[in-house]
Amino acid sequence: MVNYDVIVVGAGSMGMAAGYYLSLTGKKVLLLDSHNPPHDKGSHHGETRIIRHAYGEGEEYVPLALKAQELWYELERETGKQFFLKTGVLNVGKESSSSIKNIISSSKRFSLPIEIMSAEDIKDRWPGITVPSGFIGCYEPTSGVLRCEESIDAYRELAILNGVTILTNNRVTSITANAESVEVSTNSDSFIANSLILTAGAWSNQLLAMLDLELPLNPVRKTFAWFDVDEAIYGENVFPAFAFDTPNGYYYGFPSIQKAGLKVGRHDGGTTINPDEAMTTFGEEVGDQEDLTQFLINFMPSTGKLLYGKTCTYTLTPDEDFIVDLHPKHPNIAIAAGFSGHGFKFSSVIGKILSELIINRRTNENIDLFAIERFK
Ligand SMILES: Cc1cc2nc3c(=O)[nH]c(=O)nc-3n(C[C@H](O)[C@H](O)[C@H](O)COP(=O)(O)OP(=O)(O)OC[C@H]3O[C@@H](n4cnc5c(N)ncnc54)[C@H](O)[C@@H]3O)c2cc1C
After folding, report:
1. In terms of C-beta density within 10 A (0-12 exposed, 13-18 middle, 19 or more buried), how is residue 342 classed?
2. Among 7, 8, 9, 13, which is best to mutate for testing ligand 1, by the most ligand atoms less than 8 A from CB?
3. Does ligand 1 have an atom closer than 6 angstroms to the CB of 351?
4. Exposure string over 54-69, b if 16+ CB within 10 A, otherwise e
5. Can you state the angle between helices 62-79 and 148-161, rounded to 10 degrees?
6. pTM higher than 0.85 for the full model?
7. Residue in 148, 199, 246, 312 annotated catalytic
8. Is pLDDT of 1 > 90?
9. Distance CA 352, CA 105 (A)
10. 315 part of the active site
11. Which of 169, 173, 186, 248 is deepest in the core (most CB within 10 A)?
């Protein structure tokens, strides 16, 4: 049996970044994944993810968002490739919306550049948007869009270059742990390490059950789709990424990038799924398309016909805050899960935090909000 310093189970968004940061430490590292990341079976596919700094989900996230942004720029320098598109992000909602309030308060507290706009200002600046009076906009010009699969690929390439072993199509089927070591078996082999990082996304509770732990994680089906648009109105050079808190739901989306069409999805809602069962495809569930088109008709009426749609998984915690912590009974196991549909932008910094946590049992970043203890 081969011995490692650290095994990472789940080499998706968080696990692949953790693998890269561990590769900088000189440790002997093994990454295991049941698929071949990046892939379309988990939570990280669909080309793009939004990164915002003034944070609607709470001011506590701002220092991490800023650190994550710094690390995305670092990855670009390291690889000579572009993963971040500075499109700006437009947040729209009523003044009473908690996400709008959080965005305004976090921009004040951390001196972030936010333009507060009336419904008229928004329509004047982006003719493709219609906003009823009573709504306001918070435009953050320094934020934008990350290319998700491409950045996972980049971390993978760098990790391998630095000596990390990655075994794909290796599904972990058993884990046993004691204070000194962890034994991990997959469908093809067994491995031993001093410590383990568990980053298995929607499958996290299956693996945690092997370690006598159950967390309140709810994997849900999400839909998103691309729509045909006029590039002069909705193209990446003229239109921002966006998040709209509306009376019918919370919608987000992206300008047409490389002429792919405007992409839109709904953040709230979704039905609970079993990650091992095939999910119904986009359009198979009643309302998949209608839910997105009613948003576009109301707020972006110049968009055209549906091009195609996809499904993906969020793994929700009850408070929609992440879980990043050491296992309560095994300090040689770190867990990162429950990213609740807003984790990708942080994957750079979460990867770094996990590498610190597993080697030093601590990190300098403040992750108190993500403690497992809060569910007691
Ligand atoms: C439609 C959609 C839109 C989103 N939009 C945004 C956004 O705009 N901005 C943002 O910041 N975030 C966004 N998110 C959220 C973000 O993408 C997720 O929070 C993030 O990808 C979660 O990362 P993860 O590492 O936990 O899971 P994943 O990336 O899914 O990785 C988990 C990995 O574990 C592997 N695995 C599971 N079980 C096993 C096993 N037994 N053995 C071995 N390997 C295993 C899986 O194969 C997978 O590769 C969005 C998510 C979706 C679905």
Report:
1. buried
2. 13
3. no
4. bbbbbbbbbebbbbbb
5. 60
6. yes
7. 312
8. no
9. 27
10. no
11. 186
Tell me what the mean pLDDT of segment 118-127 comes to: 97
Residue nearest to atom 44 of ligand 1 (CA): 33
Nearest residue CA, atom 13 of ligand 1?
A: 342
Q: Could you tell me the distance, in angstroms and rounded to a whole number, from the CA of residue 218 to the centre of ligand 1?
A: 13
pLDDT tops 90 at residue 2 = no
Asked if 48 is an active-site residue, the reply is: yes
Amino acid at 313: T
Residue 101's CB is within 10 A of a number of other CB atoms, namely 15
Which atom, in ligand 1's list, is nearest to the CA of 14?
Answer: 25
Give pLDDT tens digits for 331-351: 999 999 999 999 999 999 999
- In 3D space, the residue among 65, 28, 17, 51 whose CA is nearest the CA of residue 354 turns out to be 17
CA of 239 to the centre of ligand 1 (A): 27
Q: Which two tokens stand for residue 243?
A: 């998040």
